[in-house]
Amino acid sequence: MTLLCVPLVARTVEEMVADAAAAAAAGGDLVEIRLDFIQGFRPREHLPLLLRGCPLPALVTYRPSWEGGQYEGDDTTRFEALRLAMELGVDYVDIELKVADKFMSFISGNKPEKCKLIVSSHNYEYTPSCEDLANLVARIQAVGADIVKVATTAKDIVDVSRMFQVMVHCQVPMIGLVMSEKGLMSRVLAPKFGGYLTFGILNAAKTSASGQPTVEELLNIYHIRHIGPDTKVLGLIANPVKQSKSPILHNKCLQSVGYNAVYLPLLGDNLATFLKTYSSPDFSGFSCSLPFKVDAVTCCDEHDPVAKSIGAINTIIRRPDGKLVGYNTDYIGAISAIEDGIGGPGSKDAAISPLAGRLIVVVGAGGAGKAIAYGAKEKGARVVVANRTYEKAVSLASAIGGQALRLADLETFRPEEGMILANATSLGMYPNTDGTPISKKALSFYDMVFDAVYAPKVTRLLREAEDCGVKVVSGVEMFIRQAIGQFEHFTGGIEAPESLMREIAAKYT
């Protein structure tokens, strides 16, 4: 079982002892005591206090500045502290590969049997090739490591795949982690690829390396105790992705039905490269969000007819034969939410949809905009597309037989009463919550405003529309409804737990 290690980075011994107790209460398996973080550290005085007051097995690290740590002194003083930790019965000691031979000579091979020696290498610039990583692992093994530790940095999410390849072939226990937000997958999937341990922090203020999730996230969102070699990998490919609530929603729902999968936030740069790199059948399904919904069409081998007509995909399923099939659940999610907001519920029959005959202004010509414009047209609405890049508005409007507008034209556009506005851009999305596609004054032209943005739940657009007395529909409704469709695709037809989804959305959005 992959161990969950909590790094302790407090500045005082007293705070570190308190954090060790908090780590045990949170569900950690062991703690990493970072001696280099303690101000005025005195080994013979402080180490006994730290180890005596520790309720969990301990890993002691005294990281020098040249390897990304806080310690600025000489190696001999550092080695003496680590040797003392061994004598006091610590479970693990971490030493850097660069000085491992020197440390082994210093302790003259007198390492207590109970203590495991972790020999580590950190690359804060990039992730080397598979060949170079394998050679590095061999060098670490050769110096007498009980456990190999390699930490690199992800410039692109595909870099993590190289660490996974090396981990599964390593003949000794290995800790393989890739730092930065793009490397998060390496930390969550450590149990799937045989990692000896992974790190989870107590909170965002107590991090020891970039990209570390919290203990609470690892245990209660990603459910890492249940991740194993057969666990399917799902996720949201987007850029940015940090603000998404999809991992919380999908993981809790997957757990509720007992489906063996984990859903990850995947910060990507190129969708085609990502899908080509993570081509194993275990990487079985993905949500696509900005900016990849249109790119996804060319990445898929087959398309659901609706998705093909829209020209945008928000769900990709990898079949057992390796073929990628694209779907669009944004279409149903957004249109049904708008229909209900108008005073539906609507019907699959466009003739009796509350959208039939209405004029809807869709702001945005990307993936979400295409889904809403296509769906509204299918329901019998008259569609106007407004976009910052006018040529894209023209292209989408032509495809559905609608009208194109420049974004600036919305300030005076009022051909009739009773219009509906649907924002399908990221304007107003966290963290840029001040954004809005239209002035407050112009919002008074509309009877209803829908915003596809769901984080925050009440955007500036919706808040200002309500101030004008306009009916509003939050993107949370679209979020839930499109997620229901995705969940059923991901699980091969298991009915989505809608009531649980709504409960989660209410709590986290």
UniProtKB/TrEMBL annotation:
Ranges where the SDH C-terminal domain occurs: 475-503
Q: Which residues form the Quinate/shikimate 5-dehydrogenase/glutamyl-tRNA reductase domain?
A: 354-414
Show the Gene3D superfamilies listed in the entry.
Aldolase class I, Leucine Dehydrogenase, chain A, domain 1, NAD(P)-binding Rossmann-like Domain
Q: Which domain of life is it from?
A: Eukaryota
Which positions fall inside the Shikimate dehydrogenase substrate binding N-terminal domain? Answer: 236-316
SUPFAM superfamilies per the record? Aldolase (SSF51569), Aminoacid dehydrogenase-like, N-terminal domain (SSF53223), NAD(P)-binding Rossmann-fold domains (SSF51735)
Q: Which HAMAP family match?
A: AroD, Shikimate_DH_AroE
Q: What is this protein called?
A: Shikimate dehydrogenase
Native species: Urochloa decumbens
